[in-house]
């Protein structure tokens, strides 16, 4: 399946995704599957169904494509947050977040967490992309913190970090051991934990 069909912006407006949007979505997909170092512009162009020569019209360097992929992760997170915020109670929102993570367990077993894997890889570089991906992770933690605060928890920041850290940790183990069942079991445990905090 082409990443071009998954463009968030095109979905929300009902229009066909632009080549730039298709390339950004493809970059997010291919970087997740292959990692930054192994990914080529040709790989991204192929998935986006864009001639490789056209890539340079939209993105001058591979780093610009990585940055576009980070922005795609951020846009996906904002869309998810919008959906979760429609739920009436913070416990429901947190459990729906968990359900989404657990629902991706097969993909996680193959490639790891899309944002977490990218963050880990970019942390080893000194080009500023590590800061950009950290902002996406920080946005997630901030949203989770707001849910725990709404539950009346004074330790909402610590709980938010604990929840995101538990997800990142189980993503790593699920991927390393290629065992999606680990994420399923941890999701159940975290649901019980959330219920115990309410």
Characteristic terms for this protein:
198 residues, 77% helix, globular
Spell out the blueprint of helices and strands.
Layout (H helix, E strand, L loop, with lengths): L7 H6 L5 H16 L6 H8 L3 H7 L3 H24 L4 H14 L1 H7 L2 H9 L6 H22 L5 H22 L2 H18 L1
Helix pairs in contact: 2-3, 2-5, 2-8, 5-9, 6-9, 6-11, 7-10, 7-11, 8-9, 9-10, 10-11
Task: Provide the helix percentage.
Answer: over 70%
Strand content: under 5%
What are the low-pLDDT stretches, counting only 5+ consecutive residues below 50?
1-9
Q: Please, what is the oligomeric state?
A: single chain
Describe the structure.
This protein is mainly alpha-helical and 198 residues long. It is 77% helix and 0% strand. It has helices spanning 8-13, 19-34, 41-48, 52-58, 62-85, 90-103, 105-111, 114-122, 129-150, 156-177, 180-197.
